[in-house]
Write a structure and sequence with these properties.
Elements lengths: L1 E2 L1 H15 L2 H11 L6 E5 L5 E4 H17 L2 H6 L5 H22 L5 E8 L3 E8 L4 H26 L3 H27 L21 E2 L2 E2 L8 H20 L4 H17 L3 H24 L6 H21 L1 H16 L5 H19 L15 H25 L13 H23 L7 H13 L28
Antiparallel strand pairs: 1-2, 2-3, 4-5, 6-7
Length: 483
């Protein structure tokens, strides 16, 4: 085991957080998720696997929340009757499958897995099913996601407020945009080495690629696709907050900058994800404007329906050469994607993942055993029918969990924050269904899920307690000032 530079920084930050107020821990946890290619710890014993910065800081975040409110709220997050229970069931099944299924179905099928070759370099290869270090690493990520959900839930039930999530998202969005700008700047000035401190994970770093004459923005992530998936989530959350008039000036500007970064990233995942998220936001705004006049964004509807098409037609008429170039670029990005080497390779991943699902009789090859290029096929090939069902129930209960109602015609900030968190979850799922390769959806997914459930928890049905308390007594957490 070896500590990287960012690992030492994370360790110091974590120790400081343990001695600081618990309200400091959450924004730092959210900020850590932006370091998607920064290794904190290297694990040579597991084929050179990397422990990323957010995974290491999660330990300190969880400890700080535990110090503040104990284990009660964390257990409540996973109690029967709450969405977290289904995540607990999914994670438990995933851990068992990682241990037993590769051995039970060993040699019965072939899967796409990460293999270590000479020079400590990792490649994805088609191999007969067997137990590998990938089963261990993906199990750790799955357990980390469960812990992150429970700790975030406990934080918001104890000391968190909607404003904490809003401020943390704005801060991490600016950090993400800063890394994106630095990525482009260092690329064109030949100073890419300045970004090396956030690119230490044992991944294939595709950070110097171009498409259609544009630099593929990767920011603090290993490739443009990963950057666009993360940025899409931040865009969905900030755009939703802007539509609900929460910190309008800040959320509007940040959402516009994130949208520009997505469109310039040259990622097909970004273009498809943006179209899905904007469609959902447009529908929600239209419904809100009709049912509760004065609370929606009529200007957003007008611009979407009239101004944007008018601008597009005007530009197409005045600048036909630019239109042809844009058409060629879009064809390269989307229409010819399947004919490219990358497209054919990912098509093979999906074909082998589906075959693994069939060869294991619908049980899956075990968590971490197979890769695909769509999250649905990842679930099917790794966890089978039961895993798909449990994941669907978990996400469904989170997305359908109730939100506080409006008060005197003014939209409640809590309700707006919950809606924004849910849009963020949909953004994660939209990107993952297009290009997700592994089970782990990232810490941001579980931060948003835990926040949405906790902020609306007062309206959830009573959950079956996991431990008994004295009848007639209610525990009220101590004020933050004494924690």
């Amino acid at each position: 085991m070896s500590f990287q530079f960012m690992g030492l920084i994370t360790l110091v930050a974590g120790l400081i957080i343990l001695a600081a107020p618990v309200t400091w821990a959450f924004p730092v946890m959210v900020l850590s998720t932006a370091f998607g290619a920064a290794a904190a710890i290297g694990l040579p014993a597991l084929g050179g696997a990397s422990v990323l910065v957010p995974s290491l800081f999660l330990v300190f975040f969880t400890l700080r929340v535990f110090m503040a409110c104990g284990e009660g709220q964390m257990l409540t997050a996973l109690a029967p009757g709450r969405p977290g229970f289904w995540l607990l069931a999914l994670t438990a099944f995933g851990l068992l499958s990682a241990i037993w299924f590769p051995r039970l179905f060993e040699g019965m099928t072939e899967t796409m897995t990460v293999e270590r070759v000479a020079g400590a370099r990792n490649v994805i290869a088609l191999t007969p099913l067997r137990f590998t270090s990938n089963n261990i690493t993906q199990s750790v990520y799955a357990l980390g996601g469960l812990v992150c959900f429970a700790a975030t839930f406990a934080y918001f039930r104890h000391a968190g407020r909607p404003e904490h999530l809003v401020k943390a998202i704005l801060a991490v969005a600016m950090l993400d945009l800063s890394f994106a700008f630095a990525d482009v700047l260092t690329y064109f000035t030949g100073t890419e080495y300045l970004m090396s401190f956030v690119r230490t994970a044992n991944y294939a770093m595709l950070t110097a690629a171009e498409k259609g004459g544009l630099k593929r923005i990767s920011g603090s992530f290993p490739e443009a696709s990963a950057f666009s998936e993360y940025t899409l989530v931040l865009f969905g959350v900030t755009a939703s907050l802007w539509l609900d008039r929460v910190k309008t000036g800040k959320t509007g500007i940040v959402a516009a900058l994130l949208l520009a970064a997505l469109l310039l990233s040259t990622s097909a995942t970004a273009l498809i994800g943006v179209s899905i998220v904007l469609t959902l936001l447009w529908i929600r705004t239209a419904v809100t404007s009709m049912h509760t006049p004065g609370t929606g964004r009529p200007a957003f509807l007008v611009v979407s329906l009239a101004v944007i098409p008018a601008i597009a037609l005007t530009l197409a008429t005045l600048f036909p050469a630019a239109t042809d170039s844009l058409q060629d670029f879009m064809h390269e990005m989307l229409l010819s994607k399947a004919d490219s080497q990358s497209g054919r390779e990912r098509g093979m991943w999906n074909a082998m993942a589906y075959q693994a699902f069939l060869d294991t009789f619908g049980w899956g090859a075990g968590l971490g055993s197979a890769r695909a290029s769509s999250y649905l096929l990842v679930l099917m090939s790794n966890l089978g029918v039961l895993g798909v069902v449990l994941f669907a129930i978990f996400t469904g209960t989170v997305l359908l969990s109730p939100s506080p109602s409006t008060h005197q015609g003014v939209e409640d900030v809590t309700a707006a924050t919950i809606r924004a968190a849910k849009i963020g979850l949909v953004s994660v799922l939209a990107a993952a269904l297009v290009s997700g390769t592994v089970y782990d959806l990232g810490m941001m997914f579980f931060v948003l899920a835990g926040s949405a459930v906790a902020l609306g928890a007062s309206r959830l049905p009573a959950a079956t307690p996991l431990y008994s308390t004295t009848p007639g007594r209610h525990h009220h957490p101590a004020p933050e000032s004494v924690r």
